[in-house]
Amino acid sequence: MVLYSSCRIMYLGLILLLSSSWVLDRCEGFGEFGFEFHHRFSDQVVRALPGDGLPNRDSSKYYRVMAHRDRLIRGRRLASVDQSLVTFSDGNETVRVDALGFLHYANVSIGTPSDWFLVALDTGSDLFWLPCDCTNCVRELKAPGGSSLELNIYSPNVSSTSSKVPCNSSLCTRGDRCASPQSNCPYQIRYLSNGTSSTGVLVEDVLHLVSNDKSSKTIPARVTLGCGQVQTGVFHDGAAPNGLFGLGLEDISVPSVLAKEGIAANSFSMCFGTDGAGRISFGDKGSVDQRETPLNIRQPHPTYNITVTKISVGGNVGDLEFDAVFDSGTSFTYLTDAAYTLISESFNSLALDKRYQTTDSDLPFEYCYALSANKDSFQYPAVNLTMKGGSSYPVYHPLVVIPMKDTDVYCLAIMKIEEISIIGQNFMTGYRVVFDREKLVLGWKESDCYTGETSARTLPSNRSSASARPPTSSYEPEATNIPSQRSNTSTSSAYSISISLSLFFFSILAFFI
Q: Which of 122, 126, 275, 360 is catalytic?
């Protein structure tokens, strides 16, 4: 009984941490609504959704698991192996990758009276759905120690602001399955992971948003969502146990509905911090000084597709045009052969440190380098993409640093792919990326996600000090075409209050546990 209560407190703590940003959002303009999200393996989310046997962060095993997770979630699997398991080179450990889920999570408030749901964010799908009047979905999670963590289940009958979506609605794509035009509109979404789906009926209800201005006004935004009565596949293993928040381009996605209702512009931004925390803002069309490139909207399944025209590594420019999808749900960047070869071979020719030679098959990256024994920081050639239209996109975090037994190793965090290239979260870190669906452009501007300034930011971390990882601020790009080093600055007072509240809560939590 005590263990169960502790888990409930832990879950409430995560809600406080994520929801505090709804009240403390910075003012950036009328009609913008934002909230904070966290990486799947940030300390905050792991407290509520523990990774089953996940290796230590920054280890080679961790990066191998994350790379395998990318392929599993996006349907790129090796047919000759068990798709859901990774066995490490020493043969002593395995991890169920399908249980690791999506990359970013946020708490959202739905209905009247409102309930909180810890949902996965996904720019690769459209529908926002919640577990609802379930016949086959996850009602609790097993937390460390064998205790259980109860999850909220949505019910239209309990919310006074809920209504069913009829089959004659323009948003109902399965009207042929209806007995009459007034019947409840059914839905079924199948995802790329084998046997993974959500099935139920469409409903309307209010999503409680808080404005990004000084008033912090609460807006009950009416949105369409899926009442997910049956979930299958990886949703049972923790991939999205409490719902999925689709951010795609179709009419049924939340950004589209908010625009149609006149609540926010048909645009949103996602900002990716170096600490695993980030922010999403609906209605954000960016700033006049942001860089932009056109979106390539292709039917029948539109994605956030752009065109790269040039690649520069250390000042050496290669003319190479290729399309790529900006996908916030993918950990690393995947490039087709020509682009991968150009970047990796150019990077290798300019690297100052020796190529790391190892038999460690757990390293998923091909180009890794050993930090010299007499160094505590390193230089690397700057990587810069030129987008269609001529705007430059400096990549601020192309590397990962991995402490090995004999030395620290840094790797170029890209991998080769046969299908279309994917710009993953690692290439977006340090930016506020704007998905402007009205102008059909993708915008970007350097940001620390909290002060709105172009400065580096470091949050307290629970990582062990035994990891001799060089600090991020010590990365010194060799080339001069990348912006100068960003100095650490204090965060906004609102953010400081948010962190203080969170630390205060967790100090109380520690006392009770």
A: 122
